[in-house]
Amino acid sequence: MKQWMTEKLGRQLMAVFYSVFAWSVLTSVASYLYIDNSAGQTKEQVLAQLQQTQWFWFLNLLIFLLCLLFIVRPLIGRLTMQLHELNIKSQRLAEGKSISLEHDIPVENEVGRLTASFYQMARSISSQHTELSRKNQLMEQNQDALKSKQTELEQALEVTRSNELHLQDRNELIETLASKESLFDYSSVISTIVRLTKTEFGALLLIKNNEISSVVPKEMTAEQQESLKTESLLLKRVMISKEMANSSKKVANDELIGFPYYIYEAVIPIIDPAKEELIACLYLARFDQAFKEKELIELESFSKQIAISLMRMSLYEQMEYERKETAQLLNSVREAILYIKHDEKTILGNQALFDIFESLQIEEENDSMTFLEVRPETMFEQVDQKEAFEAYFEEVLSGKIPEGMFSLSIDQGQYFIQVYAEEIMLSQEAKGTILVFRDVTAETEVDRMKSELVSTVSHELRTPLSSIYGFTELMLKRKLDPERNKRYLQTIHDESKRLTDLVSDFLNVQRMESGKQSYDKEVFDLVDTVKEQTRFYQVATEQHRLQLDIDESHEFLVNADKNSMKQLIGNLVSNAIKYSPDGGDVVISLTHHHNQIELSIRDFGLGIPSSAMPHLFSKFYRVDNSDSRKIGGTGLGLSICKEIVRAHDGNIDVESILGEGTVFKVLLPSVSDTLIEMD
């Protein structure tokens, strides 16, 4: 029975219910038939049948209850117990609690199979939980190890960051010390140190001969600087001991803050490692905390960097002084110097070179104490012998030293230069080449003047002397009639006067240039002198017509030497006549300008080439062309005119067009305009 009850529980329960139901139906039908057959029976018989029917129903009910009690109830109770047990264990399993995996439910039963499946699942979950617990424990161990390594890495990272910041600070200070600005201004250095050390203020005190020569402050007033120099015992102690020191002091009375506070100070000596001398002190101060040992060590390291920078600055100042001294020495030399550095491929020149070659541009920031960079291509443009000088220069650039002098001229003969080259040797090694440009313009001019003088004297003296000699010889050897004798004497007289004038011109130029020429100045009207000279030279020429352009309603008063004015006007009119060989008009005009009188003499003759204009007033200079070469003269007339005008505070100028004529303009101070202006 038990076996039957435990197997196929669903079908068994249904069979019991169906049996009880069938039994109830059969008994109900039998009771109905039994009652239906009681027709015609007595009341007692009917009551007896009813009573029997009641017992029959009672028996059916009893049987149904017994089935429920002994068959259905155990089945349902066992099923409920198993399901309850599964429910409890599933809840414990869901809560992660341990359960017993042993059971006595046969597997043939559906509930048993369900229980077996549940326990199999539980065993799998338990196995997985065990594995997960093991892995979790392993992961926890690994996590602990990772946390430990993470802590170590964080500590290492913190150290790395600290070292990185330290290196950044050190690099920033090194960059500041290495910058070009630190050679001239140490304010950036002390500013950087104050910021890196997180101090409120500080100063760099430069020391020379154990005395504070200068102070480079940061956030310090003039009063604080003076107090530091004269009253700081900490600074004096460091200067004596040459060892780093720090201290703190209490400030009781401060008008700005109003309450007492502490200042923490540190002074670090900066020593020249080569001489073991104190060259500076670094002073730093702050309010919040004292200087730590690590910070002091770092500051001591900074002091070594500052010492190197100060030595660099001292070396730079010494080199700069020597460079300026050398440049000043070379610039003071009259000869132009060109220095070619072969290793650096640079070309430098002194001030005299730039004075000669005006095409070389001097930058505004350069001063006279430096050597200036030169562009040789610009120089070549001014040299008259361009190709020859370029070849000479290329030879020097190749490292060869040409022998002898190279002569050249600049700006169409305005300057005459002699160039020679010398090699610069240092430690038995060629470092460069110096080209020296000697300005021989004055010597060349003297040589030219000597040649002109010899040529002029030989020509101008030989002609009158030949005439005098020839006519005197005729008069001595021949008997001449009185008329011819008189004519010969007149010729001798004229040639003697020509010689006298020539000698006078020489003497006048010499006296004027030496400043020994005296002038007897007086106030007179220049019109009379102009008219007198015009009449004189008009008589001497028949080909020319001298015209006056003068407003005689005005006075042309000058304060001048009358004889010098005659000589000035005479020379200019004589030149106008000589250099108009075909004749023509010569216009002489006088006009008033503000406080000046302009004397203008215009001719319409040969004209003057533009190349001759700069040399026109030089001694013995004569225009060299085919037309003017036939015209005589000493070349002293215009030079004398220039000296006369200069002695009278005037100015002489010339304008000319070749083949069309020339005009000379003389400006002299006007006495009449000055008097009118004073009135």
TrEMBL record:
Pfam families (alphabetical): HATPase_c, HisKA
Coiled-coil features, chain-numbered ranges: 129-159
Bilayer topology: Multi-pass membrane protein
Location within or outside the cell: Cell membrane
SUPFAM superfamilies: ATPase domain of HSP90 chaperone/DNA topoisomerase II/histidine kinase (SSF55874), GAF domain-like (SSF55781), Homodimeric domain of signal transducing histidine kinase (SSF47384)
Every Histidine kinase domain range: 456-672
Record-listed E.C. numbers: 2.7.13.3
Keywords linked to the UniProt accession: ATP-binding, Cell membrane, Coiled coil, Kinase, Membrane, Nucleotide-binding, Phosphoprotein, Transferase, Transmembrane, Transmembrane helix, Two-component regulatory system
SMART domains cross-referenced by the UniProt entry: HATPase_c, HisKA
InterPro entries, per database record: BphY/WalK/GraS-like, GAF-like_dom_sf, HAMP_dom, HATPase_C_sf, HATPase_dom, His_kinase_dom, HisK_dim/P_dom, HisK_dim/P_sf
Protein name (Swiss-Prot/TrEMBL): histidine kinase
Naturally occurring in which organism (per UniProt): Exiguobacterium antarcticum
